[in-house]
Write a structure and sequence with these properties.
There is one protein chain. The protein is an alpha/beta fold. The protein has one domain: 3-Layer(aba) Sandwich (Rossmann fold), CATH 3.40.50. Helix content is 39%, strand content 23%. It has 9 helices and 7 strands. Strands 4-3-2-1-5-6-7 form a 7-stranded mixed beta sheet, sandwiched between helices. β6, α9 and β7 form a beta-alpha-beta unit. α4 runs parallel beside α6.
């Protein structure tokens, strides 16, 4: 068995979930600035996530779900997932984003699992709070090691793909590390760099 782990925002999905939500709320510039700092490693991921989600307080959950279910897939996502699975990979998504987006994506494109965060809600509205499995800078690395132990997969049989600073921790436990349209801080940790928005280019590298 082999394991392929993908980041979600700007990797499996073409964009940032929080920025799509922010556009609806009219606060896109504020959230985009915070996201940029976090992905470049200039701001702690946990702090940045808390700040961004707090700005969405009061948004209707049904609006969040409508936006999340219509997020644009990255070019080549279906072919890439299908080909990896044919080659014996378990294909998983790790996201610092939210289950509102990763769950429907998993079901639509046939991922084996997703690990992400939960937007807290009350009476159909976001409270501005968030919790979950992917809250910290090292969350992806810690979860990757758990999956490797559970599945009996070695680091040499592990492929990881991401674009930002919060993907560094999982890069440290994988034999094949792909920086996909990534920030310089992650490219420095990668052994493969892809700068075109086409996930099928990964298939030629494995």
């Amino acid at each position: 068995m082999k394991l392929a782990v993908f980041d979600f925002d700007s990797t499996l999905m073409d964009g940032e979930t929080l920025e799509f939500l922010a556009a609806e709320a009219g606060i896109e510039a504020q959230i985009k600035e915070i996201t940029g700092k976090a992905m470049r490693g200039e701001l702690d991921f946990f702090e940045s996530l808390q700040k961004r989600v707090s700005l969405l307080k009061g948004m209707e959950v049904k609006t969040v779900n409508r936006i999340c279910e219509a997020l644009p897939p990255m070019n080549g996502v279906q072919e890439t997932i299908s080909e990896l699975k044919k080659s014996g990979y378990k294909v998983v998504c790790f996201s610092g984003g939210f289950k509102n987006a990763t769950m429907p994506f998993m079901k639509k494109y046939g991922l084996d699992a997703e690990f992400s965060n939960i937007l807290h809600e009350r009476d159909g509205l976001l409270t501005g709070m968030v919790g979950g499995e992917m809250m910290f800078n090292d969350s992806k690395g810690a979860m990757l090691q758990k999956l490797q132990r559970l599945l009996g997969v070695t680091s040499s049989d592990t492929l990881v793909v991401g674009d930002g600073a919060n993907d560094i921790s999982m890069f440290r436990h994988a034999g094949r590390k792909i920086a996909f349209c990534a920030k310089p801080i992650l490219k420095a940790e990668a052994d493969i760099i892809i700068d075109s928005k086409d996930l099928t280019l990964i298939l030629d590298k494995i």
